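Usage

Read records sequentially. Each one opens with the input sequence:
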Amino acid sequence: LDRRLSRMVHVGHCGRPLLSPWNQHPALFDLLYAFHVPAFFFLSGLVFNPGKRSFPRFLYTRLRSIMLPYALWAFISVCIFAVLVQWQLVHWVVKSRKFYPPCLKTHVGHPLGTHMDWNKPLWFLPAIMIAYLIAWATAKLIEGNRIALAVITVISLLPSWFLASHQEVWYPWSFERVGVLMPFFFLGMYMRPIVNHLPIKYL
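and closes with the structure output:
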């Protein structure tokens, strides 16, 4: 399932500019974007297990596995795009073609505007990092209480609805997108013990 979702993400980000038949069926892209990122948040919640790790240890492992690759690929992407812009192979909508302005914008981590023209799909990494931090704090707060988790999941629908209906609002690291998607993460956390008890043939 995770591999299939990955393929959908690849098609969604690469298919439209490369495959002209897709441009004739925009509804397919609307359908694709309606669920592939929520599905990833749901699966992330489904496999999320904070265990008994301390917060510093948890933070270290997530920074190493998520933010280090983000920083590395952001730097590589900026370098590649800077070269392509200098060679006039791509059009970069920025006031300056110098290397450092887009490089400094890597900390913004938001695909709107020109903040991530060098590699917009990378927005997901800082966003899922925030989701993991929220999930860790939630897990420690409820201490395995499934009723409390169910209540939090329902309550999280309110900020999700508000942020989804006010798309003009945006924050660094796509924090508003995280707010929209956290109900799916919480739902995955709630479903984890149920899925763990399913017979293997249903997985």
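Summary fields computed downstream for this record:
- The chain has nine helices and no strands.
- The CA atoms of residues 195 and 201 lie 12 Å apart.
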